[in-house]
């Protein structure tokens, strides 16, 4: 770190100009990025994906997306057999590549509501290609309205339409969310530094975010990148870059307060805080390996984008920030209302109290996280249900859903199951009578017979992501096992298979990531127990954040109050995995910040209690402020128009808040105090395996954790 620090200060002009060029290029890239991102949610190698691929190859529509659902309400005195209704549903095929099924085309009365005047149909769409997708809903509404009788209404709904937020509502853009998060961060930084230095971390964050956008734009030339990446790069990048800058700048101020002038203060800060920043960035990136190794394109792209965020932030923090501190740092550290000569009295007092009542603190922390973790055992994976989506949907889609449910038609019809069979095969008769099946339809239209195949559609009573909907999918598959060449597809079926594909290998993946993290932390802390404790507490904190998701969204204790969205009944299936990938590393940041300083104080004093009090006194305000900044960034993310993004933001924000408060303020100091001398145990064999200098310690391998304090840790060589 010192060699790196000397290098960048020796070449400060070249370093500054290089980052300036990347900053400007990133600003140009950011304006072009959104047009290059995709909304592809395919899951290769699953049975449903293969079925959907066959349907798309033959028919060119449906399968990979939920259909649009036009809902017509006829005026009093007009029945479903009116000629105008047939003309309207014929007009719904506004483009040749659309496939339509309705009451006029099948004669099936189950497309008609209990009132006899509400009639729905399904319009299957072609897959989205590059560029903005056509607004089929608006086109269909206009086409059908022109031929419907006076007094009739038509609203186009569907899960896809419901998931699209009302453009006139409170949904905000990536830029707006980032600016909101930056404003909140500036308030926190002004409190922490009480000087113009508060602007420096924001500058570092701006360079980090725009440089990452530039790299992501380059990635789009080689592979598809999900639209989710732009939100995560902007807001996670904002929080992470500010956190790393906060740590380094705070340590630089401390070194200056201790009488180290000019470049020397920068070198000393880099040797301590800089090393913690490097370990933190690598740990965050390792957590995102969980997404990169999965055979799912959109999650892999999120993993790549997510890994770039901490790595670029680390690079900017360890190169550009030292130059800024060495050149303008002293001048912008004005009016210096806060001093860094000594540790925070309030945090030293807090740490002392936790050490004194360590059993009580540990018990309270475990109970809080344990209660939330127990709630997580009720986690159900799936899409938000239609009622929840309708609260933030466009008026036309919400009105169509209301018409549908008012007529007694189950919302499961929004998530049809598509069945592909050979043309000469008789359709299975048992599909209509299956439990959970509302209707099984064999449309006679030519658009449903092509290439030696024919398509059937099964309309479930329950939406596909619900337990009832999943059971119906299983029954349909079981019924078709005896039909040669039959394939079961549809977006809901794909999601069911995707959950198994994503979470099947997850335990092994978790074990591998945990082991790699343990090895890195054992090297960083020179302790086996501290590294193991860090991994276990991190996993407990993650489980607690899942519990918050279950309570707030699945059960609705807060979603309606805060976002005016009722309980979703399930958590979008990819959200827990993405929460793990980001929170695992982000939460570990604070562990590294705190324990690195406690380790440093222990090496200096040889006393665990003193190390805890001084370590927390030096890092307590820093960690709490950093956590608050990240929480505010995720709070900004929760203003995104998509309900799924709101759920993701809630999980990330809850995880950071729990980690920065319950875990780092209670459990970390309490458990370190309880373990006592055992915290610093590193046997010779472990030191050799970790490529560390063999410690000279008089602590035998079987010494109890509460053995008396002895000499501080020393190394040979």
Automatic annotation (TrEMBL):
This protein's UniProt keywords: Cell membrane, Membrane, Transmembrane, Transmembrane helix
TM annotation in the entry: 179-197, 202-222, 228-249, 276-298, 304-328, 349-374, 502-522, 534-553, 565-586, 622-641, 647-667
Record bears the keyword Aminoacyl-tRNA synthetase: no
Protein location: Cell membrane
Main location: membrane
Highest taxon of source: Bacteria
Protein name: MMPL family transporter
Species of provenance: Plantactinospora alkalitolerans
Biological classification of the source: Bacteria, Bacillati, Actinomycetota, Actinomycetes, Micromonosporales
């Amino acid at each position: 770190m010192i060699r790196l620090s000397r290098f960048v200060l020796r070449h400060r002009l070249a370093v500054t100009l290089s980052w300036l060029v990347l900053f400007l290029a990133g600003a140009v890239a950011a304006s072009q990025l959104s047009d290059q991102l995709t909304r592809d949610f395919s899951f290769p190698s699953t049975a449903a994906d293969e079925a959907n691929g066959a349907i798309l190859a033959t028919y060119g529509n449906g399968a990979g997306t939920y259909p649009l659902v036009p809902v017509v309400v006829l005026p009093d005195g007009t029945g479903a057999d009116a000629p105008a209704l047939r003309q309207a549903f014929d007009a719904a095929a506004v483009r040749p590549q659309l496939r339509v099924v309705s009451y006029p085309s099948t004669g099936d009365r189950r497309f008609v509501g209990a009132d006899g005047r509400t009639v729905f149909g399904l319009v299957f769409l072609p897959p989205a290609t590059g560029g903005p997708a056509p607004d089929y809903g608006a086109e269909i509404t206009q086409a059908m309205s022109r031929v419907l009788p006076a007094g009739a209404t038509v609203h186009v709904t569907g899960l896809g339409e419901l998931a699209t937020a009302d453009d006139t509502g409170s949904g905000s853009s990536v830029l707006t969310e980032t600016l909101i998060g930056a404003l909140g961060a500036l308030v926190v930084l002004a409190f922490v530094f009480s000087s113009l230095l508060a602007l420096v971390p924001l500058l570092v964050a701006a360079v980090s975010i725009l440089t990452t956008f530039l790299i992501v734009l380059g990635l789009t030339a080689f592979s598809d990148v999900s639209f989710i990446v732009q939100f995560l790069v902007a807001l996670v990048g904002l929080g992470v870059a500010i956190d790393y800058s906060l740590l380094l700048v705070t340590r630089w101020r401390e070194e200056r307060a201790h009488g180290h002038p000019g470049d020397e203060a920068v070198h000393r800060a880099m040797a301590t805080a800089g090393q913690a920043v490097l370990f933190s960035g690598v740990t965050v990136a390792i957590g995102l390996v969980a997404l990169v190794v999965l055979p799912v394109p959109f999650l892999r792209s999120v993993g790549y984008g997510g890994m770039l965020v901490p790595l670029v932030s680390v690079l900017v923090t360890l190169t550009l920030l030292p130059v800024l501190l060495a050149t303008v740092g002293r001048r912008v550290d004005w009016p210096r209302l806060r001093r860094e000569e000594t540790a925070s009295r309030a945090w030293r007092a807090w740490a002392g109290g936790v050490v004194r009542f360590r059993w009580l603190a540990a018990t309270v922390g475990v109970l809080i996280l344990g209660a939330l973790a127990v709630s997580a055992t009720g986690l159900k994976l799936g899409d938000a249900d239609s009622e929840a989506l309708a609260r933030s949907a466009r008026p036309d889609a919400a009105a169509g859903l209301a018409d549908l449910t008012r007529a007694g038609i189950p919302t499961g019809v929004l998530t049809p199951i598509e069945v592909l069979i050979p043309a000469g095969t008789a359709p299975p008769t048992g599909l209509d009578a299956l439990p959970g099946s509302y209707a099984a339809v064999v449309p006679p239209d030519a658009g449903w017979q092509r290439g030696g195949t024919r398509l059937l559609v099964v309309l479930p009573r329950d939406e596909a992501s619900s337990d009832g909907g999943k059971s119906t999918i299983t029954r349909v598959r079981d019924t078709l096992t005896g039909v040669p060449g039959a394939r079961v597809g549809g977006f809901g079926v794909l999601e069911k298979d995707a959950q198994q594909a994503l979470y099947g290998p997850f335990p092994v993946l978790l074990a591998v990531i945990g082991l790699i993290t343990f090895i890195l932390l054992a090297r960083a802390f020179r302790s086996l127990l501290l590294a193991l404790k860090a991994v276990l507490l991190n996993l407990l904190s993650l489980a607690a954040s899942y519990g918050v998701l279950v309570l707030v969204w699945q059960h609705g204790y807060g979603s309606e109050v805060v976002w005016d969205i009722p309980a979703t009944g399930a958590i979008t299936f990819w959200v827990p995995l993405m929460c793990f990938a980001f929170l695992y590393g982000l939460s570990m940041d604070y562990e590294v910040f705190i324990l690195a300083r406690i380790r440093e104080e222990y090496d200096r004093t040889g006393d665990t209690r003193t190390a805890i009090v001084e370590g927390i006194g030096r890092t307590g305000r820093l960690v709490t402020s950093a956590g608050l900044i990240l929480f505010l960034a995720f709070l900004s993310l929760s203003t995104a128009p998509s309900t799924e993004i709101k759920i993701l933001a809630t999980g990330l924000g809850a995880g950071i808040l729990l980690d920065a408060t319950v875990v780092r303020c209670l459990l970390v100091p309490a458990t370190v105090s309880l373990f006592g001398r055992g915290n610093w145990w590193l046997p010779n064999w472990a030191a050799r395996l970790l490529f560390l200098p063999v410690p000279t310690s008089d602590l035998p391998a079987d010494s109890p954790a509460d053995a008396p304090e002895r000499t501080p840790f020393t190394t040979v060589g």
